[in-house]
Backbone:
C-alpha cells in the first residue's frame, strides 16, 4: 500500500475546498487500489465535507492532548472520530510555533488511538531517537510516520532521495516496520523519481497539494 497525504495547513475557505474536491475527485477511476489518498484539511472544512461522498480519506491536522471537557478552543479526538480516519501529529510547524513537545505528541497520539484515529507522526532526523522513544510502548507498527527534514519543508529544496531512503529505513527499523512517508517540497516534477529512487511508502505533500491540477499530476506520478 502507498499513501499520498495532502496537508493543506491553514489554507482554503469552504467553497475553495469544495471546488478542489470536485476537480480532484474526477480522477477517482485512475487511482490504483494500492494507493490511499488522504487529505488533511482545516477543521472548518471537515464538517461540510461530511455531507459529500468523497473517494478519499480525510485527516485532521491537529487534535487536543486532552479529552472532551473544559478546554476552550480545543477539538478532542472524540469530536473528530466521525469526521476523520487519520490525524497529523508532531508536524515541525506545530513544534516550532505552538510548542508541541514530544510529551504533548505522546498525549495526542494516545487520544487519537482511543478514538480509533490513525496518527501520522512527523519526525526529523536529528531527533529520531527521542521522537520515537516515547511511542515505543504503543502499537507503533500501525502508525504512519513521515520523515520531514526541516530544511525541505516549504523551501523548494527536497532532500536527496537516497538520503530519504536511508532515514526511512532507519525509522522502519525503529518502528517495527511501520509505513514511512517523506515530506518536504514534493511536487509533480520530482514525485516519480523520488518514489522510484527512495522506495518509500508515500508522501506528505504541503504546498503542491493546494492546486487541484498539480495534485492530480502528483497522484498520477505516484
Ligand atoms: P511542503 O510541506 O510540501 O510545502 O514542503 C510539506 C509539509 O509540511 O508537510
Residues:
Amino acid at each position: 500500500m502507498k499513501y499520498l497525504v495532502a496537508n493543506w495547513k491553514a489554507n482554503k475557505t469552504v467553497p475553495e475546498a469544495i471546488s478542489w474536491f470536485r476537480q480532484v475527485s474526477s480522477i477517482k477511476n485512475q487511482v490504483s487500489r494500492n494507493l490511499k489518498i488522504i487529505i488533511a484539511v482545516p477543521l472548518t472544512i471537515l464538517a461540510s465535507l461530511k455531507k459529500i461522498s468523497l473517494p478519499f480519506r480525510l485527516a485532521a491536522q491537529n487534535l487536543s492532548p486532552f479529552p472532551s471537557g473544559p478546554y476552550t478552543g480545543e477539538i478532542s479526538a472524540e469530536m473528530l472520530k466521525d469526521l476523520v480516519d487519520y490525524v497529523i501529529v508532531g508536524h515541525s510547524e506545530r513544534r516550532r510555533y505552538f510548542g508541541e513537545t514530544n510529551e504533548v505528541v505522546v498525549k495526542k497520539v494516545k487520544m487519537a488511538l482511543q478514538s480509533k484515529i490513525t496518527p501520522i507522526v512527523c519526525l526529523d532526523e536529528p531527533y529520531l531517537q527521542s521522537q520515537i522513544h516515547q511511542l515505543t510502548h504503543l502499537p507503533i507498527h500501525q502508525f504512519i510516520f513521515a520523515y520531514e527534514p526541516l530544511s525541505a519543508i516549504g523551501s523548494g529544496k527536497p532532500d536527496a532521495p537516497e538520503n530519504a531512503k536511508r532515514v526511512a529505513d532507519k525509522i522502519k527499523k525503529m518502528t517495527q516496520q511501520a509505513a514511512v512517508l517523506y515530506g518536504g517540497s514534493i511536487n509533480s516534477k520530482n514525485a516519480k523519481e523520488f518514489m522510484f529512487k527512495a522506495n518509500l511508502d508515500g508522501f506528505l505533500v504541503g504546498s503542491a497539494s493546494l492546486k487541484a491540477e498539480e495534485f492530480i499530476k502528483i497522484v498520477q506520478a505516484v
